Amino acid sequence: MGRPCHFALFDLQPAFRLDLAQLSARYRELAKTMHPDRFADAPERDQRLALEHSASLNEAYQTLKNAPRRALYLLALRGRELPMEVTVQDPEFLLQQMRLREELEDLQDSADVAGVAAFKRRLKQAQDELDAGFAACWDDARRREEAERLVRRMQFLDKLSHEVRQLEERLDD
């Protein structure tokens, strides 16, 4: 990778488990020192570099603060880019996805606020379990396929979690 590693920008070792509060604080600190506005009177080259650095920092932060994106990035650092299209050789999870989607649709149709809250808690628990599983195997070459399967599951639950938050907002209105 030509650009500095996302972890290096934050003086971190590549790892799945991160202190997100610390990451956020470090991001704000770095963003302040590199903000393009601070270079408004600087030569054009310095302005451009500040803008590029600011964009890189922002991209790194967005990647590292999101568990599935961080997981994909770690696999990429180990030389394994996951194809974006998901070839699902995970029938058990496919079935679980369909059930979760149907359950969310039912909750939406019934506008069940308490049900949505309970669904969200179960989803968070499932995400925590996937995170723990990925943390245990991502750096072990012999468990590469398992890590990749877990990332795909993480991506799905992350997307579903986003849809749950949108549903909550609509039900709150």
What does this structure look like?
This protein is mainly alpha-helical. The chain folds into 2 domains: 60 residues, Helix Hairpins (Orthogonal Bundle), CATH 1.10.287; 82 residues, Up-down Bundle (Monooxygenase). Helices cover 73% and strands 0% of the residues. Helix 4 runs antiparallel to helix 7. The radius of gyration is 19 Å and the shape is globular. The mean pLDDT is 89.
Which terms summarize this structure?
single chain; 173 residues; mainly alpha; Helix Hairpins; Monooxygenase; 2 domains; 7 helices; 0% strand; globular; protein-folding chaperone binding; HscB_C_sf; ATPase activator activity; J_dom_sf; Co-chaperone protein HscB homolog
Strand residue percentage: under 5%
- CATH 4th-level superfamily of the largest domain: HscB, C-terminal domain
> Helices and strands, in N-to-C order?
HHHHHHH
Oligomer: single chain
Rounded to the nearest angstrom, the distance between the terminal CA atoms is: 45 Å
Say what the CATH topology of the largest domain is. Answer: Monooxygenase
Question: So, CATH architecture of the largest domain?
Answer: Up-down Bundle
CATH class of the largest domain: Mainly Alpha
